[in-house]
Recover the amino acids of this structure.
């Protein structure tokens, strides 16, 4: 089943197109990851789908309706987005930050109701952050802060959650902690999760569906087995990859790779590849 899709979507800044004629169906109640090198349009696509930025032409359809014509507050009841580097006002407590997720549901003077407080506490409990409710967000670790931001998205009570590189700046343990939480939300609450990931093996491990982008166009979309292949990674990341199987999940994984010889190997491309396979400094 598909509730959310794009149809010949063109997105850009000024006269420069970043995403070109992109049509994709995002499976409902599944985890979708978007992969691709730096600057290929991953974050731009997320921003356009969630109406943070306008698109030049084409359509984004949610439940058969064009989101560009819908009410912003009503749209916020259906989809939430966690940006790449979320920032909150200094001095906010965890509870205060998560309460912002209730904004689309508030009426009149915007005072929190009993239902609002119940949802806030539920979101904190589900993400394992209830114990931090009265602590300042700035005092938390990176992994704890990321879980709090996810709690705020959950407090919106949306069926669809977008996350732009939710594991950025986190160590390996905290990355796994966040991804396992998102998987739990998908499996137990049937939330549709759409996220941008740089690590190919994490994308393969946690995704039901993968969209591989290059220069604003889809190279391949489908299951992990269909996308995490030698040919697709060659086209998307310009690498010669050895693909094996994760011994714990039996999903495809990139074991090792070489840069393709005789081609452009400038520093920006190399940095994108290192990020994609989880190599950091």
């Amino acid at each position: 089943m598909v509730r959310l899709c794009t149809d010949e979507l063109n997105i850009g800044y000024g006269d420069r197109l970043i995403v070109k004629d992109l049509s994709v169906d995002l499976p409902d109640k599944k985890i979708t990851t978007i992969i691709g090198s730096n600057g290929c349009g991953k974050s731009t696509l997320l921003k356009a789908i969630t109406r943070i930025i306008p698109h030049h032409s084409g359509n984004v359809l949610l439940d058969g309706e064009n989101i560009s014509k819908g009410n912003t507050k009503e749209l916020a009841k259906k989809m939430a987005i966690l940006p790449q580097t979320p920032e909150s006002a200094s001095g906010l407590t965890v509870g205060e930050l998560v309460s912002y997720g209730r904004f689309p549901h508030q009426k009149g003077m915007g005072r929190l109701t009993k239902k609002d407080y119940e949802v806030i506490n539920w979101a904190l409990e589900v993400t394992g952050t209830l114990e931090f409710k009265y602590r300042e967000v700035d005092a938390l670790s990176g992994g704890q802060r990321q879980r709090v931001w996810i709690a705020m998205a959950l407090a919106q009570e949306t069926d669809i959650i977008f996350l732009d590189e939710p594991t950025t700046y986190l160590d390996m343990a905290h990355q796994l902690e966040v991804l396992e939480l998102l998987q739990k939300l998908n499996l137990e609450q049937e939330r549709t999760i759409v996220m941008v990931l740089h690590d190919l093996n994490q994308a393969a491990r946690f995704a039901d569906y993968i969209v591989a982008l290059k220069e604003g166009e889809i190279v391949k979309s489908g299951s992990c087995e269909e996308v995490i292949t030698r040919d697709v990674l060659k086209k998307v990341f310009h690498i010669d990859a050895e693909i094996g199987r994760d011994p714990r999940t039996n999903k495809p994984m990139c074991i090792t790779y070489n840069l393709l010889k005789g081609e452009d190997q400038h520093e920006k491309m190399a940095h994108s590849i290192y990020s994609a396979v989880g190599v950091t400094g």
User: Anything to note?
Assistant: The chain has two domains: 1-78+159-174+187-281, 86-157. The first strand starts at residue 2 and ends at 13. The radius of gyration is 19 Å.
